[in-house]
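[step 3/7] inverse_fold.run input=structure_tokens len=288
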């Protein structure tokens, strides 16, 4: 290393650039770990995390520039070039600095370990939505009156209602997320859906129907003796336009079989529905 480079690094050290960089890096690590824990709990969109990382990166460059160009004095922030030789500059205690860095690093490492030890969260929004519904419903049920409704019944009513909302919003991925991997769908006057692809096609065609308005509401929930399975029945209403643009109004009933998965979340394993209208009525539809 030549004399010029040595002088440059000495100046970086004198202006506390290295310490500012290390401090910022550790604090940024801690903030990232905090965000990684809190944002998924709040169901925050992924772009917020991306924007947060970009802001941290920009802030790092700004922090280094400020540490190089300015110094903090008892009179306030001053440009380094404007400091007189006898100017009093607060000194960073090595011991206090080390304690601060180690403390922040330990907290950040603890949060990182906490996330690694937790069961992996669902990677897609479509699968995380039913999980969060189940958790929220469980918490709400436990805080309610024990003699009112069975907690699992409340959970399934809430999940089924949220499922109806997802379908009404024509969100295909969200709608499909409520099914288990081995689910079977039994639509009227149509072939059964026994694979993920077949079930996807059933809902894809339905949600793409022109003028579609679909809702359903659970009326009864029955829990099995094992506590691991339950069935939900209710009524649905469906409006759509046929190939000629003529409106079709359908209403009927449905039956769902739900099973508690290994992770503790409920998924629909069997789904069937049929119309209340007579078979000869022009308003009868073959899909819920």
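[step 3/7] decode complete -> sequence:
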């Amino acid at each position: 290393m030549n004399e010029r480079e040595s002088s440059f690094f000495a100046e970086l050290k004198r202006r506390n650039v290295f310490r500012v960089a290390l401090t910022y890096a550790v604090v940024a690590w801690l903030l990232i770990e905090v965000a990684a824990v809190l944002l998924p709990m709040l169901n925050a969109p992924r772009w917020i995390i991306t924007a947060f990382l970009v802001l941290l990166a920009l802030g790092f460059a700004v922090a280094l520039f400020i540490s190089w160009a300015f110094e903090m004095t008892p009179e306030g922030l001053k440009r380094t070039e404007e400091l007189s030789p006898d100017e009093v500059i607060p000194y960073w205690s090595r011991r206090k600095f080390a304690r601060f860095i180690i403390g922040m690093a330990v907290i950040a490492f603890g949060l990182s370990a906490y996330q690694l030890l937790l069961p992996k969260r669902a990677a897609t929004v479509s699968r995380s939505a039913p999980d969060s519904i189940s958790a929220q419903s469980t918490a709400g049920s436990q805080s309610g009156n024990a003699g009112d409704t069975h907690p699992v019944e409340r959970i399934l009513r809430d999940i089924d209602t949220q499922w109806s909302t997802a379908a009404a919003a024509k969100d295909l991925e969200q709608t499909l997320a409520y099914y288990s991997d081995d689910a079977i769908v039994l639509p009227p006057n149509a072939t059964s859906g026994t694979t993920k692809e077949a079930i996807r096609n059933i809902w894809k065609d339905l949600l793409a129907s022109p003028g579609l308005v679909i809702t359903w509401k659970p009326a009864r929930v029955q829990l099995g003796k094992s506590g691991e399975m339950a069935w939900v029945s209710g009524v649905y209403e469906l409006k759509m336009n046929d190939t000629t643009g003529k409106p079709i109004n359908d209403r009927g009933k449905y039956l769902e079989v739900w099973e508690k998965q290994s992770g503790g979340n409920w998924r629909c394993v069997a789904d069937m529905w049929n119309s209340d209208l007579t078979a000869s009525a022009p308003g009868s539809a073959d899909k819920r």
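[step 4/7] annotate
The helical segments are 3-14, 17-41, 46-69, 94-117, 125-143, 151-168, 172-176, 196-207.
Confidence is low (pLDDT under 50) at residues 119-148, 281-285.
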